[in-house]
């Protein structure tokens, strides 16, 4: 399936979409490849000529119309997310709200793309910096937030004056189709937003090699991100990369342990641990490690696992069987190296891809879970003695996306805030994400930001102009 130059395109090549909670086929979409991607890039390139020249307010008005349509379809959009991704309906509704918020925010920001007038060093020179759209943006999105990851990329692109070709994840194409239906209904001009669903490698190759694509924005695994970056080097594209993470969650003995345990619950078990800012390592100060472990295990054992469409479900399925097997391997490895399961620990036998929400006490740095991204509902508890030690261990990762710290000691909070090598830090806050703030990592977690004025910068170039008069 594709949406190119304002028209829907079907092909005979079909791929099924599955519900990860039941294994049932919930739909099928036709898939496209290199040729359609070329066409989509061509359409985006043509429409860029006019879209970039529209006043920001006009671009913003198209986006605001799409917001209105999405709000009127919010329940249906959330249902699609739950069916193809598995997350509980309440979380899917939250994702729809968040995704729409990005579009709304950037619809407003489209009016506020300012340049600069720079003081000159000569009487006859006049210096200015124009901020202009970078060009056609190619976007590749993952399945863990199948709706909001799309609007997070398209919103700043359109506000800046860019046009877009987007490839969603094969597991969750239905949410992507929903988004593009809304843009179509909003009357966004043909070619401004284009969708290509299909062969990742073929589509990716067209996107990275095309000289008509000026920018690549990707959210997904670090391995694929690195490959796309390498492939884009030949055409020197601007890059935004939101890649993997391995978040530390540090809990000091002075923290409110109840709040910290609720924080881990939010950060580790929302979306069944399948978010890039999910906690991967819970570091608890030695004196409270045992008490905290018991508290967390009790809360985790009360979580309801099941089909996200059912009332009262807290944790849905993992995306596929491969994900379940990986989580299981991490748990087995931890147990074989001395970890003690306080809650959960097993695959749930069913037609869906479920794993019990799990807490492991006595985690050590040699376990796989200490360095590899689990992307599942397992909280390993490590213990530490001093601030210096925990900061060093927390930073000992090639990832640098999100880090968390719970403490009521202001000096500790400042020290951790300054020293953590992560792009996002939550102090007593397990959900440090909001539309007006920059989301993005450092190290091998990527480059570039989504959100706020920073997100707009990723789609703009600075053109310096010097005018000489006499
Ligand atoms: P995950 O393991 O979480 O699925 P991936 O990085 O494989 O993460 O997937 C994120 C997105 O990247 C998806 O849309 C996927 O189809 C896409 N993708 C995977 N491999 C490639 C590739 N070789 N070229 C372009 N896109 C790719």
Provide the low-confidence segments as ranges: none
Biggest β-sheet: strands ordered side by side in the sheet: 2-1-9-8-7-10-11-23
Q: What is the share of helical residues?
A: 25-40%
Can you identify the CATH superfamily of the largest domain?
A: Aldehyde Dehydrogenase, Chain A, domain 1
Shape: globular
The helix count comes to 14
Overall pLDDT metric? 98
- Overall number of structural domains: 2
Compute the gyration radius: what is it? 23 Å
- Major sheet details: 8 strands, mixed
CATH class of the largest domain: Alpha Beta
Beta strands, count: 24
Bound molecules: adenosine-5'-diphosphate
Give an overview in words.
With 470 residues, the protein is of the alpha/beta class. The chain has two domains: 2-244 and 443-468, Aldehyde Dehydrogenase, Chain A, domain 1 (3-Layer(aba) Sandwich), CATH 3.40.605.10; 247-398 and 402-427, Aldehyde Dehydrogenase, Chain A, domain 2, CATH 3.40.309.10. It is built from 14 helices and 24 strands. The strands form six sheets. An eight-stranded mixed sheet has the order 2-1-9-8-7-10-11-23, sandwiched between helices. Helix 2 runs antiparallel to helix 4. The model has no long low-confidence stretch (mean pLDDT 98). It binds adenosine-5'-diphosphate. Adenosine-5'-diphosphate binds next to helix 7. This is Succinate-semialdehyde dehydrogenase/glutarate-semialdehyde dehydrogenase. Its EC number is 1.2.1.16, 1.2.1.20, 1.2.1.79. InterPro entries: Ald_DH/histidinol_DH (IPR016161), Ald_DH_C (IPR016163), Ald_DH_N (IPR016162), Aldehyde_DH_dom (IPR015590), Aldehyde_DH_Superfamily (IPR050740).
């Amino acid at each position: 399936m594709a949406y190119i130059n304002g028209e829907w395109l079907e092909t005979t090549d079909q791929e099924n979409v599955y519900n990860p909670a039941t294994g049932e086929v919930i739909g099928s979409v036709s898939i496209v490849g290199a040729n359609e991607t070329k066409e989509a890039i061509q359409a985006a390139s043509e429409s860029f000529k006019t879209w970039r020249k529209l006043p920001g307010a006009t671009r913003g008005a198209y986006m605001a119309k799409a917001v209105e349509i999405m709000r009127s379809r919010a329940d249906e959009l959330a249902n699609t997310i739950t069916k193809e991704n598995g997350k509980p309906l309440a979380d899917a509704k939250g994702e729809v709200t968040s995704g729409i918020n990005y579009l709304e925010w950037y619809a407003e920001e489209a009016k506020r793309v300012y340049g600069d007038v720079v003081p000159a060093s000569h009487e006859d020179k006049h210096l200015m910096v124009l901020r202009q759209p970078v060009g056609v943006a190619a976007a590749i999105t993952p399945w863990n937030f199948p709706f909001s990851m799309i609007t997070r990329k398209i919103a700043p692109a359109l506000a800046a004056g860019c046009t877009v070709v987007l490839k969603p994840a094969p597991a969750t194409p239905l949410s992507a189709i929903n988004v593009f239906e809304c843009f179509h209904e909003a009357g966004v001009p043909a070619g401004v937003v284009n969708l290509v669903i299909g062969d990742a490698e073929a589509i990716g190759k067209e996107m990275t090699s095309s000289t008509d694509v000026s920018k690549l924005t990707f959210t997904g695994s670090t391995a694929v991100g690195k490959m796309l970056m390498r492939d884009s080097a030949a055409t020197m594209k601007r890059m935004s990369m939101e890649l993997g993470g391995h978040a530390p969650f540090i809990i000091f003995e002075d923290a409110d342990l109840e709040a910290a345990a609720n924080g881990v619950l939010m950060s580790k078990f929302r979306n069944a641990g399948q978010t890039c800012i999910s906690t991967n390592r819970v570091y608890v100060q030695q004196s409270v490690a045992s008490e905290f472990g018991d508290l967390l295990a009790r809360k985790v054992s009360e979580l309801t696992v099941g089909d996200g469409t059912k009332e009262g479900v807290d944790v849905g399925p993992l995306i596929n069987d491969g994900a379940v097997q990986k989580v299981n391997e991490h748990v087995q490895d931890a147990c074989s190296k001395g970890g003690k399961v306080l809650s959960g620990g097993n695959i749930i036998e069913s037609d869906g891809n479920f794993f019990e929400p799990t807490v492991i006490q006595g985690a050590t740095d040699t376990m796989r879970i200490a360095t590899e991204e689990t992307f599942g509902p397992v909280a390993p508890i490590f213990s530490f003695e001093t601030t210096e030690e925990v900061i060093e261990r927390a930073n000992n990762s090639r990832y640098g996306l999100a880090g968390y710290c719970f403490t009521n000691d202001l000096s500790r909070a400042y020290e951790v805030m300054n020293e953590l090598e992560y792009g996002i830090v939550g102090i007593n806050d397990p959900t440090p994400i909001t539309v007006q703030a920059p989301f993005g990592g450092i190290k091998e977690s990527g480059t570039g930001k989504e959100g706020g004025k920073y997100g707009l910068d990723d789609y703009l170039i600075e053109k310096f102009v010097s005018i000489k008069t006499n």
